[in-house]
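Narrative of activities, Objective 1.

The group set out to show that a structural description can be obtained from nothing but a protein's sequence at a throughput compatible with the screening campaign. Below is one input-output pair from the validation batch, recorded exactly as produced.
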Amino acid sequence: MQRSAFGRLEDGRTVDRIVLRSDVLDVAVLTYGATVQSVLVPDRDGRADDVVLGFDDLSGYLDSHPYFGATVGRYANRIARGRFSLDGTEHRLPVNDGPNCLHGGTVGFDRHLWSARAGSGSESDTGESVELTHVSPDGDMGFPGTLTATVAFTVNGRDLRIDYTATSDRPTVVNLTNHSYFNLAGSGSVEHHEVRLLASRFTPVDENVVPTGELTDVSGTPLDFGSFRPIGPALREPHDQLRRARGFDHNWVIDGAEAGSLRLAAQVREPSNGRALEVWTDQPGVQFYTGNLLDGTLVGKAGQVYSKGAGLCLETQHFPDSPNQPAFPSTVLRPGETYRTSTVFRFVG
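Output recorded for this entry:
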């Protein structure tokens, strides 16, 4: 593990960049936002490219950006109308996505400096690892309870593994994920990437891109990625769900998902260079997002202009708006319990 200063915040605190390496991968994590800043992966000819979107310096991460590489929380994805009830008490959250609270509110976990120490990752891992911790106080962004969240990043062979844990001193809701934007070509558009999602159902959304509460079969819709399909043609299929989200920005219900057991949820491949990505998780859902709001105004690494389709996200998660959807898997965390989940990004090919 290699640790170096990446920049300073206005209050003088140092943001560090921590590099984890294997014989295949080179992954950099920032202590600001527990952010995946870069992932260097070789192609079939051995040429390494950075396959995640982001910035070369800290200023880009301090400015407004769409969560490039960040750990998002306390609740990833949308909570409708910025409110939910728990044990008979209504909690109000800041709205930052139309009428919704998105990714924890206006100052989510992506906007905090996390403490870091060398970690051992999961018991089965032997690679390089770093453990980042953030304490969110009671009432932070309207959420109840003091929540202590830990994210461990481990690089081992072809795997980038992320292990999340959290505890709270009051009943609360929690849903953590990583918001990396992947581009297996290293630059340009991901429209030629081919995607497979091991999910026969999805949660359709309303006009505010919030789940309606239904679980709908993907058969006969553009959301059917049961077999590998290129993203571009699928994006251009006429369908009300794509219109509402301005592309793909939906939660797929992973087939056979079981708490505590890793299962293959998604696969992506880039035909021209042979890079491929597998996503393994114990979560019940995965949000497939095609960078619909990237509009060419952000300039990222090496001067790249990030336009729509510059990257794709595969955010493993519990379902959006679960605190308001009693039929969805619960995201409630109570004192004495430990929130625990893992996701593996495996680069194959």
